[in-house]
Amino acid sequence: MILIGDLLLIGLLVGLAWLSLGTRDLRRAVILFIAFGLLLALVWARLEAPDVALAEAAIGAGLTGALLLAALRDYPPAARGVADSRAPASGVRTAVLPGLLSLALVGCVAGLAWAFASGTPHPEGLTSAVMGEIGRSGVSNPVTAVLLNFRALDTLLEIAVLLVAVLGIFALNTERRPYEQPEPVVAAFVRWLIPLLVVAGGYLLWVGAHAPGGAFQAGAVLAAAGVALRLTGHRAVRAAESTLARLSLVAGVAVFLATGIAVMLTGGAFLEYPAALAGSLILLIEVAATISIAAILISAFNGGRALAHQGARTAQTGQPLPDSPPPSRGNGAAEC
Amino acid sequence: MIDLIAAGFITTGLAFFLAGSIGLLRLPDIYTRLHALTKADNLGLGLLTIGLILQVDTGLPTGKLLLIWLLVMAASSVGSHLIARRARAEGISTWSP
Fold first, then answer.
1. Residue among A174, A168, A178 nearest A303 (CA)
2. CB contact under 8 A, B74 and A189
3. Could you say which of A30, A52, A89, A244 has the lowest number of CB atoms within 10 Å?
4. What is the rounded CA–CA span in Å between residue A219 and residue A217?
């Protein structure tokens, strides 16, 4: 019975991936991709990896979906089916590449099937190694112990990659055009939702020490609050304008690096926390990382630098506000 | 006994999900499909939540399940409101037999 459910899940996953890649309508492809992400989160949950499931649902399906939909909005409607207008090229050459790729894919699947059938040499993986050292890691959730202590360097680099990506976005683009004022139902819903999202983000951050959760999930939930604000005409992070927003963008990498170097002064290696302080240091890094991840994802959704002299409220007054930042109710989210 | 009652609630909830899915596939226009989805899913999820609450410890897990139910209801009603509004703005007329 459980096997039937698993096979159904796998079949749906592959089917959705196929449909999403195969459709010629970009909007449909994006929506199928979001559905694929949600289903993938279910698969992770089924594989008893709730941390990954949370991250996949929040970032893979939620935030990436929002980014793709926002990017789609910048496309002229006529271009959304662009693949359709291109006549399929004829000849043998066009069939070679898909053929080779299919062969490679079949080889991969066959290899995986063989590895699965012949039995893996280390069935428990690194579980025992992690669980043996977890007492010194400062946290009791093994995933957080690996991400923020044993392999903290990887996580530092992940956050640095996000920062570099958003710097690239700032270098290339200006902000997407603002969204219209929402209708009352949505505005009321978002007003009600934002505090809940902030609380949920804080909860995920705190609970990460001993249960599924952590900086990436918390940051994604806070970013969702920022996206909701943006969609209803507010601006959560005015990235290029305020010092606070810039500080939030770099806080994660900065605090991570500073902590790593500070523990070197006490005699350890880079990011080798003293066992007594490990819990507090991890929480400190995670708080900063959460703020940064949220700010970076919101900035990515905004799509680039804010245009000079473009205030969120100028549309209402008709007057540009050259020097003073426009009074925006969305401002508060930059501080959370 | 509790497990049996919980199973009853969950099965009934799943029946609503099934009805909602059939409605989504079979009903003639966007408004009736929305009707099938929101009504059936909210009731279905409610029954599912009750069934799950019977099986978890009282306290925090119960609160979380109730919160999930409320949030999904709020989100789905706002979502279907938006879809219906957009459909009307685009001039999609209602189905008449």
1. A174
2. yes
3. A89
4. 5
**Contact (CB<8Å) A196/B71:** yes
pLDDT tens track for B51-64: 999 988 778 889 88
Cβ-defined contact of B78 to A189 (cutoff 8 Å): yes
> Is any Cβ of chain B less than 8 angstroms from the Cβ of A335?
no
**pLDDT band, residue A244 (cuts 50/70/90):** confident
C-alpha distance from residue B78 to each of A112, B72, B84 (Å): 44, 10, 10
Question: Which pTM does this prediction carry?
Answer: 0.80
Q: How far is A186 from chain B (nearest CA, A)?
A: 7
DSSP A100-143: HHHHHHHHHHHHHHHHHHH--S-TTTTHHHHHHHGGGTS-S-HH
Across the interface, do A185 and B71 touch by the CB < 8 Å criterion? Answer: no
Q: In whole angstroms, how far apart are CA A81 and each of A23, A24, A228?
A: 9, 6, 28
